[in-house]
Amino acid sequence: MPVCLVHIDRPAVTQCKTCFRPLCSKCVIRHGRETFCSVQCVDGLMQSSGKIGHHLLHQRQDRQESAQTRAAVLFLVSLIALLFVLLVL
Ligand SMILES: [Zn+2]
Ligand SMILES: [Zn+2]
Q1: 28: CB partners within 8 A, 6+ apart
Q2: Per-residue pLDDT for 45 more than 90?
Q3: Ligand 2: centre distance to CA 46 (Å)
Q4: Is the pTM of this model over 0.90?
Q5: CA distance 69 to 75
């Protein structure tokens, strides 16, 4: 049975969601459905999940840009093909 790192005489009831430190019922900080050892760890998880969200948003933007580039290239290729056909005929 793991014990709390601060109160070594108390059994750990859960662990921190961010740093996985064992926590007793006195030390636990609840945030929503998750448990944390400190406000720093709450912030840490919020920041990392925020970063993931931003990263996904960025990826989506990149994908949109490459789709636009592909459309532009396709347009140029078809324009050149059209000019080629006009010149040959
Ligand atoms: Zn922690
Ligand atoms: Zn404790």
Answers
A1: 13, 14, 35, 36, 37
A2: no
A3: 23
A4: no
A5: 10
Q: Could you tell me the distance, in angstroms and rounded to a whole number, from the CA of residue 41 to the centre of ligand 2? A: 15
Q: Is residue 64 part of a domain?
A: yes
In a domain, 54, yes or no: yes
User: Which ligand ends up closest to the CA of 12?
Assistant: 2
Range of the domain at 39: 14-88
Percent of the chain with pLDDT over 90: 61
For residues 40 and 44, give the distance between their C-alpha atoms in angstroms, rounded to a whole number. Answer: 6
Q: Which ligand is nearest to the CA of 16?
A: 1
Residue 52 pLDDT greater than 90, yes or no: no
